[in-house]
Amino acid sequence: MLTALAVLIGVGGIGESIAQEVWDRAAAVEVNQELNRPELIEKGRYLAIAGDCKACHTAPGGNAFAGGRAMQMPVLGTLYTSNITPDINTGIGGWTLAEFEGALRRGVGKDGRNLYPAMPYESYAKITDDDIKALYAYFLFGVSPVHEAPPPNKIRKALQARWPLKIWNFLFAPNDPFTPDPSQSDAWNRGAYLVQGLAHCGACHTPRGIAFQEKAYDETDRRFLAGGPVLDGWQAYNITSDPVSGIGEWSDEQLTQYLKIGHVNRLAQAAGPMAEAIENSLSQLSDSDIAAMVTYLRTVPAVRGKARVARQSLGTPATDVIIKRGSPLAVDRAANLKSDGARLYLGLCATCHGVDGSGSKDGYYPSLINNSTVGAESEHNLRQTILQGVRRNIGDDEIMMPGFARELDEMQLKKLLEYLRRQFATPAENT
Q1: How far is Cα 400 from Cα 275, in angstroms, rounded to an integer?
Q2: N or C end of the chain: smaller count of CB under 10 Å?
């Protein structure tokens, strides 16, 4: 009896396997095999880098493009990114070119359901037909399939219906591919195409409206790239040409260097999502594409915020830390002194950033004086940098700052932030 049962189970398993193979072959018939060409796949690989697809569609420690990365969305809840490998069952292995294009440009999945706009399809709408084909070729024929389904989304019950997204798309999402401006240079148009489209800079750096829509999608609207909302604790800064609130005072060389390696001595250092974008995407783009992006960004109309002094021009060398150095710690036993900001700086920061905050001469340990993160209007990015640290791998260079989330309680963090902002984020005459 047991032998017969085992045989039946084995036959059933074989039957299921054969059925699955037939199903997979049927799905694969829909795939556009004519695009399986080496040169097109290579073009798509580069475009996928420009679009930074890996950053969102790869979970920490997971397989590339297999999805499962958690994304915290304000009000909505937690979304888990989809598997975009060519696996038939859990990925996009059976998608047609039209279905791929629909998801990328209009935010509509293979099953007809609307995607949440955590996927920047409003920006990807600008991708040209030829580039859509190249991306399709890469993901269908140039990426290894991974059979892995992401966790289910954790969306608030009242917001789980997808049909309102159709209305949202109608009201807010553009759907026209990029059109070159004949009055501008080829470099400007290439830069505009990358910034507005594939690189989707506006997804982070443009203000959001009441329905969480981007308020602008190109330079014709003065709100474009004027600074975005706080997402996952990080805030993307104003990158318009304004010399105070934006990057108008940055030289072309400084902006180019920042986009390529994420570091400009005594000016800016990338951390969090921006470091990730530089590591996975911008650092791997051609010099001509980076130059094109710089060319375009220079022409984005200036938007002035509340700041009256550029964030990279604030702060003075610390002196109170030097006074405390070597003095008895017994007095710090009192509860109100345990979180003294200057002492916390001395214990956690001074070894790398210098007792006076000037950093190292080569800039590997950044100066906190004239630092565009420390001097920003809000403390969001400084807070996240202290808590999470910095991880940035560009080529053979690894930049690392430890996070102090386990060492600092909220009161201590508050005191340290107060000290750093008072010392390094105020005009020199006010310190």
Answers
A1: 11
A2: N
